Structure formats: C-alpha cells, structure tokens
Amino acid sequence: MYCIQSAATISHQPSFASIGFSSRLSKDIGSLIKPDYKDFVPPALIRRMSEILRMSVACSNLVLKDAGIKQPDAIITGTGLGCLYDTEKFLNNAITIEGGLLPPTSFIQSTHNTIAGQISLVLGNHQYNMTHTQNSLSFEHALLDAMLMLDEDNGNILIGSADEVIDPLLPIAAYFKLNHFPLTSGASFYVISKNKNEKTLAVIEACHTSAFYSSLENEIKDFLSKTGEQQIDFILNDGCNKDVSRLIEALLPGKCIINYSEICGLYATNSAFALHLATDIICNKTKQVYDRTINSHQRALIINSLLPERAGFIMIKSNEA
Amino acid sequence: MDNLKEELKKHLITQLNLEDKTPADIMDEAPLFGDNGLGLDSIDALELIVLLDKHYHIKLTNPEEGKSVFYSINTMAEYIEKNKK
C-alpha cells in the first residue's frame, strides 16, 4: 500500500495550499499562481533560485509540514526538461562572454538533479537522493522508484516533479505539434508512506510505464486486467491525442473522462498535477470539474500518453475504498 | 571614486540577484561576507571574480588576494582603481 500523506502543487491553477481546489478551477489557463516564496524558502537561498527551484522547495516544505515530518527517508524527483531557465542563462553567457570567465551559479543550477539537490540542502538531508528524467514519463518513474523503496522498507518518501517553460520552447513545441494546450510550468510534491493513518489523503494502487509499445490498447488492457477496470469512477487523461481519447472511450465506455492538460497546460511532468487533482477530487468528493460530472469518488485512473509510444498509468483510490 | 562605487553596487545587485537590495542599502565600508554585512558566501566570491573580469577586465589570479579585495565596496573600488586597464 502506498499512502499519499500530503500533496502540494504550484501551477497555473489555484492549487497551492488550497484544499478542494478541484472545485475552484479557472476555465482559462492564466499566469503561474505563486505563493510568497519567502514563507517557504530560506531568504539567503531564494535569490539564487530560478522559478523551478522555488516552486519545488516551496512545495517540498509544505508537504513535509502537512505530513508532520522533519526529514524524509528519501528525496526522489522527476523532471522532463530540467532547469531550463539556468540552462538558457548559462548558454547565453557562454556565447556572449567569448573566452572569458563564466558565472558559476547558472552552470551549477542548470543540471536536472539541482531540484532534488536544493531540497536536500535546504533540509540538511543526507538520505537517498535521486532524479529521474525520462521526458514525459519522468514523474511515473520517480513514483515507481518510491514504490520500490517502500516495498523494501517503511519510511516517508518525499517525491515530486517539476518543469518550467522558457520562451525558446514555444517554437520547438509547435514543430513537434505539441501546441494543443499552452505550455506552462508546474511542480507537484507528495509525501508517501506504507502505513495508512489519519493524515492519509488517498492510496496509490499501481503505477506502470511503457515505452515503444506496439499497441496502446494492449497496454491499457494489461494494466486494467491487473487492477480491475469495473471499479473505475473517473479517468484523468492528458488529452493531447484525439485517437488516444477515442480509444479510452471505447475501452471504458460511459466513464467520466477529464483532460488534465486542458486544466494545467502542457509540461513534461503534468501527470504529477493530475495525481494531485485526482487526490483532491477523491478527498473532497468534487462533483463537477469543468463540464464533467463525477458521481462516485472511490477510484481513478490517470493515463499519460503525452508523447507517442510512451505511456504511463497510475491507479489511485480513496483511503476508504 | 564615488561613481565607481555606485556602479559597483549596481553590478553586485544584478550579478548576485540581490532582489531586495538597492545601492543605498549597501554601505561602502560594510563587510560583504559574513553575518555582519551582506551575507555573501563562497559561490558569490566566484561570481565577484567573474564580475571583475567582465566589467573591468581584471583577472584575480592570486586566490590569497580575494579576502582583502572583496572585503567591502571600498576595498573592491580601490583594487579596481589600481588595476583597471
């Protein structure tokens, strides 16, 4: 059993420190909705942090506080494209400062594992620290890592993912025809543990990823056969591929399907937002998300097929189920 | 010299992302490092070396000099005056 003890998301929706946000979603994806980072990030460190780091450290601090934990037993993050702002800054410096010294901060903070590293530095944490980066499946792989750790031992694992948008991504996304939804930034973090208690928000039943599959239909059928399709109350689908949407409707007829990229926008790890949205819907028994009506709140399936030939599935259930 | 100190403070704020500071907040004689001053650290020291190179074409080659050169705005300005090309 993998229990979600706390959850925090900074996104373009009012999701941060906002229980029941699934019933207050904005129809339009506006700007990133940020908290006052000074409440969550040490002032001496904040000035050096780019948005992706500020979001991640703020979310991490909130989930640890909500779960009543000072030090997690592991920090596991996923990021599709990493710290893009610092990467761009470093590369621009390399181009403009011909042969001169390069500023170190943007170089140090341009690597993908800066997120998990900064969280551990802020906490003074010396436990397992891992970063997964497999593009659109980065969050699912981080989650699988956490689940494997919990299979071996008890503990409280801080897990999450983050991605940020920078301007040069816009033409690249258009080239790859990833322009169905606006490109956005977001970070979602969770504390998960093996033991259910009064803080448990929901339970992750299973997570599965598949790359370079021959048939998405077979992948979905396999996952459902292991987890039981008849009990699914609602489905969160990335919604970027109409053929996939039609396939899900055919395989799971009559189910409530919510396209989560329509709500949070597009970034490589937006399935982590979907997990928080599903948790919030289940915990607060949200009846309406946009124009979709949810009648039962026991079990939800998250399908991530953001990129072709890559799929991630997460099954989540109510802690009462 | 006063113009140089003012310019130096602006460069410092930009290079080190001192978002909440204005040049007026940085005293000429106050220590840049440690809790009694701006609270800069070792990564900032590297950024200051880059700042000297980028804006004043001065390469600080002897690490022993760093502590005295980067003590305050006054010491930095004096060093720049002596070594600028």
Concise summary:
With 321 residues, chain A is α/β, with parallel strands linked by helices. Chain A is built from eleven helices and twelve strands. A ten-stranded mixed sheet of chain A has the order 3-2-4-5-1-6-12-11-7-8, sandwiched between helices. A two-stranded antiparallel sheet of chain A has the order 9-10.
Task: Note down, in words, how this protein is organized.
The complex is a heterodimer of chains A (321) and B (85). Chain A is of the alpha/beta class. Chain A has helices spanning 43-46, 51-67, 84-96, 104-108, 114-123, 138-152, 169-175, 216-227, 242-251, 261-264, 271-284; strands at 2-10, 74-78, 128-132, 156-163, 186-193, 202-211, 234-237, 256-259, 288-289, 292-293, 299-304, 310-318. Chain A has a 10-stranded mixed β-sheet with strand order 3-2-4-5-1-6-12-11-7-8, with helices on both faces. Chain A is globular, with a radius of gyration of 19 Å. Chain A starts with a strand and ends with a strand. The model of chain A has no long low-confidence stretch (mean pLDDT 95). Chain B is mainly α. In chain B, 55% of the residues lie in helices and 0% in strands. Chain B contains 4 helices and no strands. The interface between A and B is medium-sized, with 11 and 16 residues.
Radius of gyration of chain A (CA) equals: 19 Å
Largest sheet of chain A: 10 strands, mixed
User: Which chain pair shows the most residues in contact?
Assistant: A-B, 11 and 16 residues
Total of DSSP H or I helical runs spanning 4+ residues of chain B: 4
CATH class of the largest domain in chain A: Alpha Beta
Largest sheet of chain B: none
Classify the helix fraction of chain A into a percent range: 25-40%
Number of strands of chain B: 0
Query: Could you list the spans of chain A in which at least 5 consecutive residues all have pLDDT below 50?
Result: none
The CATH first-level class of chain B comes to: Mainly Alpha
Major sheet strand order of chain A: 3-2-4-5-1-6-12-11-7-8
Sketch the topology of chain A as an H/E string, one letter per element.
EHHEHHHEHEHEEHEHEHHEEEE
Tell me the β content of chain A. Answer: 15-25%
What would the average pLDDT of chain A be, to the nearest integer?
Answer: 95
Calculate the mean pLDDT score of chain B and round it.
Answer: 91
Name of the CATH superfamily of chain B: ACP-like
Identify low-pLDDT runs of chain B: none
Cα distance spanning the termini of chain A: 12 Å
CATH topology of chain B: Non-ribosomal Peptide Synthetase Peptidyl Carrier Protein, Chain A
Assembly context of the chains? heterodimer
